[in-house]
Amino acid sequence: MIPFSPPRIDDKIINEVSDALRSGWITTGPKTKMFEKKIANYCNVSNVLAVNSWTSGAELLLYWFGVKEGDEVITPVYTYCATANIVIHRGARVIMVDVRSDFGLDLSLLEKHITPKTKAIIPVDVGGLPVHFDKLKSIVNKTSIKEKFNPQSENQKKLGRIMILSDAAHSFGAKYKGQNIGSEVDFTVFSFHAVKNLTTAEGGAICINLPEPFDNTEIYKQLNTLSLHGQNKDALAKTQKGSWEYDVIDAGFKCNMTDILASIGLVELERYEFETLPARKCIFEQYSSLLKEYDWAIIPHYKDENRESSYHLYLLKIKGISLEDRNHIIQEIFEQEVSVNVHYKPLPLLSYYKGLGYDINNYPEAKSMWECEISLPVYFSLTPDQVKEVVNVVVNAVEKIKKQ
Ligand SMILES: *Cc1c(COP(=O)(O)O)cnc(C)c1O
Questions:
Q1: Which residue of 111, 140, 318, 323 pairs with 371 in a disulfide if CB–CB is 3.0 to 4.6 A?
Q2: What is the pTM of this model?
């Protein structure tokens, strides 16, 4: 069976994890702090906070910004449930917006969804392709949009506009205008979940990039404290002689990263730019060159003038098929021992959101994309022969179903 996206667990990882275990320090400590510094360096930002998941890190940011009941947060309709759930956890309303054919938020629809209640926008880099950050920022900074903004919390007053929190769960190492992403918007949050390009088993990181008058080092300290119950000393600081006493300054979250997880991340990061990304890119290019022979294959868009994907998901679309056909094709592919996936079933098709009243018919682009999408396997050790095999299996399945 060709798997979809197994993690790379080799001796280097095992040795580094053993090292963390043998050090006697297993929760947040020196390895986590080192991991944060290296990510900051990679992403061209001054401060990065490592956390235990994208979800907890991003929710922490909504809390920090004071998002609460009565507020609205804009997300694309075509995403993983986490993007919407963090908004719901804060008691705010999710405003779902349709996407474009490259799977990114349709920025031409954005303005009409912005109201005086809008506090944040969470664009998603689906598959690893960054959204058009400049376009997004120019909308949020428009005078007419800023005048609508109705700040409630201290941080909202200080920012003076809608906050942009980038869901970069797929796009660690993606490029925007030639640079690794992380320094385009207010906050960029990565996921290091087991299926992501760079994994720590579970984990995430927040790139902090607020404009003046915010002091990003100060914000790092605040968020770090909030990631540990609002406790003003972490476990390591408390081990210093006579340093047992601490204060709690807020009812914070509990989402700090551990040194065991950071040790996996340190190995993954070291080989990311020169090993992981080029290998993934090669697989994408081989898929595209083989599939472009077929007129039913809509090749995913993963590079243009300003943007380059992190090559996370190969999002193949198949022209002229029904949802039923798509599902039969996937069944055929699995029967030939190849694992594929679908990204994503749009949120309004999932029971919980449907129950809240979201209607898929309001999102025609997302609906048509989901009906014809199949994500192909991409991972570090997928060989050129296996890529050929996947393509053969997909071609046979599509042609068989299309003939029926
Ligand atoms: C994986 C994923 C998340 C959640 O990441 P976790 O680290 O598992 O919390 C959020 N958004 C998108 C688009 C994802 O794919």
A1: 323
A2: 0.98
